[in-house]
Amino acid sequence: MINALARLPGIGPKTASRLTFFLLNAPDELADDLLAALGELRSGIGYCQTCFNITAAGRSECEICASAERDGRVVCVVEEPLDVIAIERVGAYQGKYHVLRGALSPIEGIGPEDLTIRELLGRVQVGGIGELIIATNPSMEGDATAMYLQRQLAQSGVRVTRLARGLPVGGDLEYADQGTLLRALLGRQDMAG
Amino acid sequence: MINALARLPGIGPKTASRLTFFLLNAPDELADDLLAALGELRSGIGYCQTCFNITAAGRSECEICASAERDGRVVCVVEEPLDVIAIERVGAYQGKYHVLRGALSPIEGIGPEDLTIRELLGRVQVGGIGELIIATNPSMEGDATAMYLQRQLAQSGVRVTRLARGLPVGGDLEYADQGTLLRALLGRQDMAG
Fold first, then answer.
1. Of B107, B118, B114, nearest to B140 (Cα)?
2. Residue environment code for B37-61, b if the CB has 16+ CB neighbours within 10 A, otherwise e
3. Contact status, residue B149 vs residue B77, Cβ threshold 8 Å
4. Domains plus CATH for chain B?
5. What is the pLDDT of residues A31-87, one digit of tens each?
6. How far apart (Å, rounded) are the C-alpha atoms in residues A92 and B20?
7. CA-CA distance, A171 to B139, in Å (whole number)?
8. Whole-angstrom distance, CA of residue B128 vs CA of residue A27
9. What are the pLDDT digits (tens) for A161-177?
10. Dihedral sign computed on CA atoms, order B121, B126, B131, B133
């Protein structure tokens, strides 16, 4: 048990021992609840066959893909299911998603075939999509993935946009890193009247 | 001496006492050097009469304003001299500056007349400026100041731009705050081919 727990991220052998001894002495319900939750997690999670977001097992489409209230003409392309949660939390996006399940990384040997890029291009080919918002991370890998997608989609006739880069809200210019400041300077925008 | 030192930011009475006793026992040169440096600081700093950046005393113009290599057609408007240093560090900006010496803040009672806004409008009226880049902080006060300047300059014929807002470079979408993510989403830009 200690060895199994110690393999979880952020849990070392000491914490693992402490948790194990806690569970030994804990009321049976707690261990039973954990067991049930873990079993559900294992059997109860599937992937949406359209956008590859996490979904309840046995369902071929996630709630967002299945919703008639979401605008299917706009698709936001993210790396991970957690990014979907982050954008949903903002509450301003009404379109659908496509989860790449990672980002291109030659160093880690992750190529286009390891992501759901073929499936994304397939969705575009089916038609009905007017804009793809590339929302990969503002990192080296995210940038490489965005560039690759943009090239693949250049002939598709679909508008390809990317999340704005620049100064984060509420920050202080003086503390912005040089890369961010450079982006903010080069990407400066006309103020509306 | 202890009381004087304790009034500096970040230095409490304990540190002040320690510093004072250190100086008591320190070689004379150290105290002399400090004294000289402090005197120079007091008498040696002035403000550029054009851009209001810090400059050496006795000089009416700072190095940037006096430089023939800087493009006077572009003026970057910042809140503080430290912001000039931050933008200079990026090494990509070749224009000149205007230091507002603060930002509008009704709560703190800082109005337009407390800043160097009149002087900025005067520089615009003289002519020769084609673009003003508003680089106030991405904060409430910075936003209010930018909006105010934009309104004041609407009839001037000068292009008024603002530093881009969005995701900082190297970040992770999942950790971006909601305000930043909203800005990034609303400000999304077409990817170039």
1. B107
2. eeeeeeeeeebbebbbbebeeeeee
3. yes
4. 2-38 (no CATH), 68-162 (3.40.1360.10)
5. 888 888 888 777 778 899 999 999 877 788 999 999 999 999 999 999 999 999 999
6. 57
7. 6
8. 79
9. 999 999 998 878 888 88
10. negative
Confidence of residue A117 (pLDDT cuts 50, 70, 90): very high
Q: Tens of pLDDT along B143-153?
A: 999 999 999 99
Q: Do B177 and A170 touch (CB under 8 A)?
A: yes
The CA distance from A6 to A14, in Å, is 8
ipTM of the predicted structure? Answer: 0.75
CA distance to A161, B4, B8, B18, per residue, from B31 (Å): 60, 15, 18, 15
DSSP-assigned beta bridge partners for residue B132: B75, B160
CB A76 within 8 A of CB A95: yes
pTM of the model: 0.76
Is A159 in Cβ contact with B188 (below 8 Å)?
no
Contacts of B95 in chain A (CB under 8 A): none
B31, HSE (Cβ side, Cα atoms, 13 Å):
11
Type of residue numbered B88: E
Q: Do B101 and B111 meet the contact criterion of CB atoms below 8 Å apart?
A: no
Helix and strand numbers (H, E) in chain A are 8, 7
The answer to whether B179 faces chain A, any CB pair under 8 Å, is yes
Reference B191, options A105, A132, A73; nearest CA is A132
Q: Which of B8, B36, B35, B6 is nearest to B18 (CA)?
A: B6
Find where tokens 């007091």 sit.
Answer: B42
DSSP state of A167: B
Residue carrying structure tokens 């393999």? A7
The encoded tokens of residue B125 equal 């009226």
Is B80 at the interface with chain A, CB within 8 A? yes
Chain B residues 22-41 with CB within 8 Å of chain A: none
